[in-house]
Amino acid sequence: GLALALTAGAGCGSGSPASVAAAATAAPAVEPTLAPVPTAAPSPSPTPEPTATPAPTATATPEPEPAWELEVREIDDAIRARVEPTSWRPGCPVGLDDLRLLTFPHHGFDGGIHRGELIVAAEWTDAVGRVFEQLFDASYPVERIRLVDEYGGDDGASMRANNTSGFNCREVAGRPGVWSNHAFGTAIDLNPLMNPYVRGSVVDPPEGAAYLDRGNVRPGMIVEGDAAVAAFGDIGWVWGGHWRSSKDYQHFSADGR
């Protein structure tokens, strides 16, 4: 039976034994390797917008403190035209050559800085300048400092305007023929409306009666120990508030009169 099987197998025309053996030992077919799918390149990260640098905050530059400055001028023709014949005229006890015009800043009642003009004796120029520098540094209020000529040389009008003044060729009130210290440029009346002259029931200027209560101190009133009394005292001038028989609260003078 085995021989028949072999013969029959050989007669089938299926190839030689070597071919069969080769077919039996052939390597199995290899599955084709798939090419890797390319990976998409990552999208680049967006470049961040630059952060704007904040503009520096503008800092207001503080206004500089006003500086003290004293200007001294001789009485030239232009100034003479302003004072003659109101506060000075021929026959006055001093000549124009003996006087000087001072210009300087001062603190006003409105909180501002103003320019003042004052005529004094030439020999007292530096000392009076130091007085008003001290008052300026102390922010001492002076309502106005103008030549009395702006009031026609009228001392009463100047006082009612609370105008601080110096030289004025005039006599002592109520004493004809007796020159006031103002006629020599050696006296100054400071804030006169608020610091009136008082003798008994007489008040000058009369409007100054509103300031007779010296204990009710308001800015511009001169009282014992304040900056004005101290500054004038430093140059040897006497305050009329120290007088005995009368009080001239506005008045400072070189010889105490």
Write structural notes for this entry:
- The protein is of the alpha+beta class and about 260 residues long.
- Helices cover about 20% and strands about 20% of the residues.
- The protein has helices at about 1-10, 15-25, 75-85, 125-135, 155-160, 225-235; strands at about 70-75, 100-105, 115-120, 145, 165, 170, 175-180, 185-190, 195-200, 200-205, 240, 245-250, 250-255.
- α4 packs antiparallel against α6 (about 225-235).
- The longest helix is centred in the middle third of the chain and has 13 residues, at about 125-135.
- It is globular and about 90 Å long.
- The chain starts with a helix and ends with a strand.
- About 30% of the residues are buried.
